[in-house]
Amino acid sequence: MIALVAGATRGTGRGIAVELGAVGATVYCTGRSTRERRSEMDRPETIEETAELVTKAGGTGIPVQVDHLEPDQVKALTERIDREQGRLDVLVNDVWGGDGLWDWNTPVWKQDLDKGLKMLRLGVHTHLITSHHALPLMIRNEGGLVVEVTDGTWDFNAPRYRENLYYDLVKMSVNRLAFTQAHELRPYGCAAVALTPGFLRSEAMLENFAVTEANWRDGARREPAFAVSETPAYTGRAVAALATDPDRMRWAGRSVDSGTLAKEYGFTDVDGSRPDVWRYLADTEGGKRVDPDDYR
């Protein structure tokens, strides 16, 4: 299996890359942060570290520095994959980079316009550019899989305001990207799926809650929903399950969350639980009190 995880430096992208490695995939791990130079996000995680984790898990990790807003760089990447592998079986569009560009619960006319438009470029344009260049390689063979990583399923997001117009628009757009690509890829026997993690314990989120993976439950004192959080490996296992499912076309065009796929395929998070934060959030709307442990 040959996979491209666009946006594999950290968080969900890293978790997906590593779990694809665990099922033996060769994974091209792309992003902007390398050991030589950090991206504008100025975080320590690198694509080289991700690639090493992929290889350690049992696959072959290949780090490639790519800015997915630059079509020429993405074109060169897909040409390299074609030259080295001759095929592409899995494309994961996980590029984001919009952290810190929003003001929550602030009307659009009070938002910084440049930051808002940049969020759209980072969260939507990057996915379009990558699919444009990668899909011609994928459709050479039946059985390909495109995973569009978003925040919130279509059904969860549609009736709710996601606290910032630009953020709301990006995450709904990514759901729609999966739906439309599924339509266009169906004649080639390839599936496109929108997938959202739940409350993700990414590197940045752990820092935000001033906890580590060892004591993460302490974060629930600040935010009860954090008790239903999940590791990046959970979404990674969801993608691995889709990628190895010969009947994956049944998911084409759908918008699903990691918890739903965990129930379907029988995998768990690293602690053996099956977090379902989206059901938790829906059930607690209006102030209803529930036990978070019932959602693991």
TrEMBL record:
Top-rank taxon, per record: Bacteria
Protein species of origin: Nonomuraea corallina
Pfam families recorded: adh_short
Name this protein carries in UniProt: SDR family oxidoreductase
PANTHER family: DEHYDROGENASE/REDUCTASE SDR FAMILY MEMBER 1, DEHYDROGENASE_REDUCTASE SDR FAMILY MEMBER 1
